[in-house]
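notes to self, project folder thing:

trying the whole complex as one job this time. last attempt i did each chain seperately and stitching them together was a nightmare. two parts in total, labels are on each line so i dont mix them up again. if this works i'll redo the older ones the same way
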Amino acid sequence: MTLRLELAAPDRVGLDEPLVATARLRNDGPDPVVTSARLNLHEGDLLLNVTRPDATTGQVVWAWPIDSALRRIELGPGAVLESGVLVHWAVGGLVMPVADRYRLAASLTAAPDVLVEAAPIDVLRTDAADEDGLAAQRLLLEPDVARSVAAAAPMGTAAPVLADLARRGPPTTRLLAALALADADAVREAATDLAAPDTPVAPALVATAVVPPGLYPGDERVSWVVEGLSAGPEADAVDVDRARAVLSGSPHPSR
Amino acid sequence: MGNMTGDGIHASGAEATGEASEEATSGCDCKEDAGAFYVFDEQGNLVDTGAPAPPLPVPSFGPMLPVPPPVLSPPFPPPITARACPISTLDGSWLVEFAPQGGPASPVFPLTHIRGPMRIEVGAASLRISGDIYARRMPFAPNGPVAPGPPRAMPWYPQLPMTQYVWYFRSTGCTYAAGQLQFTFERRLWDRAARTFTATDAGRMTLTCRRPLGLGPRITRLRPMTGSATIGGRTYHVTATKTSTMYRGCAVEVDAMTNRQWPATASMCTGAAVGFRSVYATAGWEVQVTVDDTALPEDPQLSVPELQTLIAGHETPATDPSQWRMWLLVGSAQGTLFGLMFDDDAAPREGAVGFADPQFGNDPTIAPFARNQPLGAVPLAFLRTLVHEAGHALNLFHPKHDVHAPPIGTSIMNQTGDVMGFATTANPYPCNATLEFDDHSRTSLIHAPDPQVRPGWLNFGWGHGSLSSGLPEPVDADGLRNIEEAADLRLDLVLPASIVVGEYVIAEVTLTNAGDAPREVTTLLNLSEGDLQLRRQTPDGRLDQVRDIVVGCGPRPLVTLAPGESLTGRAQVFYTSVGHTFTAPGQHLVEAELDGGDGLTVVRSGPVRVQVRMPVSEAEQAIADATLDRGVGRALALGDFVVDEAAQEKLTAVAEGHADSDTGAACALVLANSLARPLSGREEEAARPAQPEAARRYLDLAVQGRSAQRVAELATTVASSVDKDAPVVEQALTRMRRARKGAADMERAEAVVADFSRAGSRRA
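result (full assembly):
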């Protein structure tokens, strides 16, 4: 087995932004490998388990069960397939509703008889540190808002709240809200802001967590994220290529 | 299946005879097996045939119930007018009804109609039984058994109001011999307010199946089975009437977008025809498909909100709310998705969609006739997706997500992509798809409890873990306290959406006559006197009941509400029967339940979400440090610190240091109330003399910078609801009049005080 799955996330994330983890599937072997390209929670090849503060463990199952076709991809030696993973709303409700420590474990069914497991990671969710953050935190825990963020579409009565979240708050929250509203300017602006302190890959990961490229090819919101990247500070060209690969669901060379 | 009546779905094909007619078709390879003997284990598998075995023991889970000696028939005499049914006759859906032996258990409710569907699945070497029981109380009906309804034509499926659901049962071992079916079962008791199973116990049932002599082996005239059941320590007469040779039924309404086709039938690669109905029939389900609107407006991409709008606008309104039904859309596309069960609103799992437009690729493992074709142009594949999505509406999971870990393969509930993963050039997709449910999904469809399966009931995902936990108290067949909900009343509960630990909290309930006739209701909209209670689910999933720390007893004042009129009451929920109510950070779900006033019904508010967080700012922390003291909590609940000087000190600190917050104002009002009157001691001397000046000062603090309405809400909730003479209420009103608050504001404040004084005031 030459495939390796990694799950990554910041050690500490405030509850004023949904957690977007990163799933990376890497071919460590010398030969190309054909694998499932469905590196997302939506289609279920990627399975995510969360261990909650009370020590119970549950599977994070995408809230809207879908049927879709098989999509495979060839990963060359050293190539990486990378995607964002939204850990916020799933079957059963909010995944991380309270400030505390959570453990995440992921696996991918790369082929019907090939299961690749990632090392578990711990994430500390904290209450927001200021009044604005606490307001955003409260709003993000509202079911309609949380559903909207995950579905990347305004659900129920969430639209005005999403508009508020798209204007202020952490860039991840702003970008997710803007994607849900399909607000081109807000998407570009949030993508630019999110890329600035991190790398261009960050907004790409957030976008793919809710709009997986293989499931929604040609979604215009992805092009707005790309435009936002271009408007940001000059970044390492390799990182920009990596971000574009993430957004298109294509492999990129390992760094 | 077809027309609907009160308790279920009627058939249109068979003749109504009063005695069900059926064609014996399945089960245990037994044609004329009246003398055969079968023993089935806990999982329903055949473990023995031949000599009769001793009676079944009640399984050893939960508390052992006092089970009387088993009621076994004497050695079966040769029947004169009837003979034992073959075991295959048992297979299918039954209406099972219970009546207590020895008369009703309660003089208040002389008659409770306890009935529901029972499913008996007779396999080649198995027999499994499950059922869902619903109870309705009929206080004014004459004592005695419920008169049988008019005979119904098979097939039909007992589908009953969710509000009457009381328990689920499933066999844990069966025998069938000489026409006598004996089985033990475990019972899961349903709590309607918590919407889950909260207790478990065990029972036993014996039923005798006879058919008249003289009819051929293929067509039998089946009489109802009769027998007895031991449930919760009582014995019941049982009657079971067969309703279908299948197990469950559901109406499916199909709407299609313009230029998209519903695949009514499809050809398998073997040439055999298959349809939506025939696939569900393999799981013992009878689905009645009605293709309704086939010209929904074109929309090339359908988002989830758009799908929710479509179901709201196009699903035909239900004529019978008890009917099981779902809505299926033949839609265009959402990205490359083939299908989606999108309905996750308050009545979940009632809608799903198959997308006709996404295209197959050109992979050699895709059948030539499907390559580069849109899904809608490949009827077999499209039908598979639609059956799959409807399966989600019946709460089936993808095998790869199911905690029961059914095998991943080519059966219906596997995603298309997973089935394609097993395709080869020799056996390409969709030829390799199995148009049947895997064993786990099939068992779930047949035997899982109604709340899990029925569209519109429990959320998607329920039932794929543990059903319930906790040890039960033996209860009778009425189940837990599951009084019916009043259809003509509405209860609204208002709580702050977010609370900081240590913050004073008020709950407001409004009871409205939503019917079209005057309605007598209780005026006791408070947490002290028993008519109103709050149920709360903490962030860790624990359930508790929240009441006042003071319990008042007395007559129940009633008032008649005209249609549209409402009553409002308020109560503090800062410190209650559970102590400080909101100390656990996270999401709390709170529901109010009020006795309908007639002893027969309750009205519930539906859950309200309250997000609780820890203090962050210095002020919040200081308030919490003081108010989380038990003495302060009790003072805020009673409206009086009595002689607790430590509590008085903390109340004073919050009142003076944080008068800008409602918690500070509430503390000030407690002080004002306490100090406005002397507290009697055991001797002649007052335990606490009145300090009217100080009381006025605290009243001033509470009134400053606050609307009259808010002051009234705070004053009427810090005053105990059983202390109508609490001085703070009237004094606050007088003080606000003097403060020249706005007229409209004062009017609202006076209404709040009236709510308190009259324990609720009527408003149109």
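what i see at first glance: The two ends of chain A are 21 Å apart (CA to CA).
need to look closer tmrw
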